[in-house]
Amino acid sequence: MFVFVLFFYYLEICQGLQRPLVIGHRGVAYLPELTLASQSMAHAYGADIIEIDVCLSRDDQLIIIHDTYLDGVTNVKDVFPNRNRTNGRNYVIDFTLEELRILTVRERVNPSTNVQVYPLRFPSKSIVPFRLSTLNETIELLLGLNHATGRQRQLLIEIKQPEYHVLYNKSISKIVIETLNAYNLTRSTDPIIIQTFNIEELMHIRYNLHSQLRLFALMTVYQAGVSVSDYDFYRSEEGIRNLSNTVQALAPDHVLVVDYDINGEIMGTSNLTKWAHQYNLNVYPYTFRKDLFPGSSFEKLVEYFWHIAQVDGFITDHPDVILQLLQNDTTVNTTFSTTLTTTFNTTSSTTLTTTFNTTLTTTSSTTFSTTSSTTLSTTINTFNTTLNRSSANFLHLFLLIITFLFTSIKRSELYF
């Protein structure tokens, strides 16, 4: 009986390794960020969730844009050459929706140098007339694509700097909630999630605006100009425990989840994910970029965050790449667990050994250590000659489980 319990416990682990969620950061990296085209591509690529940012215009329209200013992603300086403030920037809140409609959106550039931030992405000098959009249009797009494709994607709405909008006597969170209410998007089961770096604002949304929508707490190490929230406290165990009464997940900068050396190689994990899971919170770190990442291998980075740091999802500019990496890894685990199920039905310890050796040989190039598989095969053969069949069957199963765990640990050693 113990053998059956042990075996099916292992199968539950192996088969229960559902891939993490993939969140398309500002849509996808292949088109100018946050445009309806970029959001549509993220939906088509299979991103589980599409992340967007909202700011308010002068006439209280919710504009989909990452910054509170326009200069990094639009031609505002060309269209409105005399509207900038003394710091040289043109702010969304200084323009009406009608004025913002005139602007074209381009791939992000450094406003000071006009140099494209990610040179290998969509050309910033392209004449394709991408436009800014509103939250209403983005909601309509999501619901329309979900209906037309039968694929139920979700929308992660980041409210940009609520405290900044308060300076203009505007409650951006209230306007966001009212907009969602108009679409009857009010429940925790609806395909809408809200996040912000201002953790106190999340509490305001939950307890003063009485929203039942899912909430994510964004966290960063670069606090200046981002939020007044005390991240040192909120990423402590006590802070995470307090957050668990209000939010459903943490969305930290990836540097808060793992520790890197000066070369960008991973040295180990922090306690953030462990504490979050202890209090039933998911963890979705940001931002994973194929064209800008720490260390020497994007694939190893993703594997580490999934298997070692045990995050629940990835906020990424490249959802298609992450999905492919996760699919490759999931396929290996599924193949292994399927082989185990078939093998367990045999009554012959010799057959068990042969099948197991074949499984190891087949998958060793991508998953297992050749040395480990050879050593284990020798060990099993030795036990075959010294133990009776019932004992050997039990031991084979036990060793098989231990070896799979051992080789997984061996894989993790590559990152240290």
TrEMBL record:
Keywords, in A-Z order: Glycerol metabolism, Hydrolase, Membrane, Signal, Transmembrane, Transmembrane helix
GO function terms (MF aspect): glycerophosphodiester phosphodiesterase activity
Record domain GP-PDE: where: 20-326
Reaction(s) this enzyme catalyzes, per UniProt: a sn-glycero-3-phosphodiester + H2O = an alcohol + sn-glycerol 3-phosphate + H(+)
EC number(s) per entry: 3.1.4.46
Transmembrane spans: 391-409
Gene Ontology annotations of biological process type: glycerol metabolic process; lipid metabolic process
Gene3D superfamilies on file: Phosphatidylinositol (PI) phosphodiesterase
Protein name as it appears in the record: glycerophosphodiester phosphodiesterase
Species in which this protein is naturally found: Adineta steineri
Lineage of the species this protein comes from: Eukaryota, Metazoa, Spiralia, Gnathifera, Rotifera
